[in-house]
Amino acid sequence: MSTLAAARRQLVQHGPALALAALLAASGALHLVKPGVFRPLIPRRLGDPDPWVVGSGVAELACAGALAVPGTRRAGGIASAALLVGVFPGNVTMAVRSRPDARSWAGRPAVAWGRLPLQVPLIAWALSVARRAA
């Protein structure tokens, strides 16, 4: 097998999982570096948003790590799908609270409402990674 063919096979085998891992790692890091962007996503009835923001950021980083390693990829895909389902109420909260004059880009209606349907393909992607790893 040529080097190019081997590289292509590796990309097909690992690319989707590594791309999802990169997306979750970036989002998880952003939660920890810029928590203010995510505070408005936390429903008020859950109390102080900071532990939720940090916790979800750490969970995203953990999922990213699990997706990056072939031996934990199946569990990482399932955990990622569960996490994406779990944060959906926060995305709904953000959309309901969105305002055209919001300081944060994430708080503007077009972005906040536009995020909601994106959860479905993200969840499907995570489940696909889990299935392919099995």
Question: What's a quick, concise take on this entry?
Answer:
The protein is mostly helical and 134 residues long. It has helices at residues 3-33, 35-38, 49-68, 73-86, 88-97, 109-133. Helix 3 packs antiparallel against helix 4.
Helices and strands, with pairings:
Layout: H1 3-33, H2 35-38, H3 49-68, H4 73-86, H5 88-97, H6 109-133
Helix pairs in contact: 1-3, 1-6, 3-4, 4-6, 5-6
How would you portray this structure in words?
The structure is a single chain. By secondary structure, this protein is mostly helical. It has one domain (3-133). It contains 6 helices and no strands. The chain is elongated and about 55 Å long. 23% of the residues are buried. The model has no long low-confidence stretch (mean pLDDT 90).
Order of H and E elements = HHHHHH
Termini separation comes to: 25 Å
According to DSSP, the number of beta strands is 0
Number of domains: 1
Structural class by SSE content: mainly alpha
Beta-strand proportion: under 5%
Task: Note the total helix count.
Answer: 6
Principal-axes shape call: elongated
Helical fraction equals: over 70%
| Rg estimate, integer Å | 17 Å
Main sheet properties: none
Can you give the mean pLDDT? 90
Task: Outline the low-pLDDT stretches.
Answer: none
Protein name: DoxX family membrane protein
InterPro entries: DoxX
Membrane topology: Multi-pass membrane protein
Keywords: Membrane, Transmembrane, Transmembrane helix
